[in-house]
Amino acid sequence: MTQARDTATRRQSALICLGSNLPVGEAGPEKIVQNAVAEIGRVVGVVVGESRLFTTPCWPPGAGPDYVNAAVRCETGLAAGDVLAALHGIEAAQGRTRRARWEARVLDLDLIALGDLVCPDAETQSRWRDLPVEEQAKVAPDGLVLPHPRMAERAFVLVPLAEVAPDWRHPLTGQSVLEMLDALPEAARGEIRAL
Predict the structure, then answer these.
(1) 57 vs 10, residue with greater confidence
(2) Of 73, 82, 96, 129, which is the active-site residue?
(3) Residue 171, CA distances (Å) to 74, 114, 122 in order
(4) Residue-range definition of the domain harbouring residue 67
(5) Is the per-residue pLDDT at 171 higher than 90?
(6) Is residue 4 part of a domain?
(7) Could you tell me if residue 27 is inside a domain?
(8) Contact by Cβ (8 Å): 155, 63
(9) Residue 6 domain-assigned?
(10) Is 99 annotated as catalytic?
């Protein structure tokens, strides 16, 4: 597993969203998310912001029980690929498997943004961000795309993220987290409830 380290690399804020809707042994989703926050602090970087826990409807509807979601902001000297590898290692240690897109999961850790990095490039990020809804369930990027292309559409990402990085701005659209959240329908925002 990648270890968090201070290097000559410029330290940046990593915005990470967490979700769980399946237990592991005696640990339910709340405990799994709390444990993952601690592990992020150990292997990714210093956690400088942590949201409350929220309960959110499963996406897509009917794919499993409701989720427990949260977000963290941490300062890291790791490159984006190393952050992603560390997050995948944390997921695997909790028993996460990847069999189907949008399946119920023990732990889901999404790197939403790393500073103002656009990855792999602006054209690719914009193409994935503008992907029609009917295509989103069929295809997934074969590499890391940052900022996360679906973030502006998902209340379960934006509500907790607004607690840790409300003023972070998308480097291509210029919208802040709060502006993206305000643009969502009230019904979508209302489905996200603090625990």
Answers:
(1) 57
(2) 96
(3) 18, 11, 9
(4) 12-194
(5) yes
(6) no
(7) yes
(8) no
(9) no
(10) no
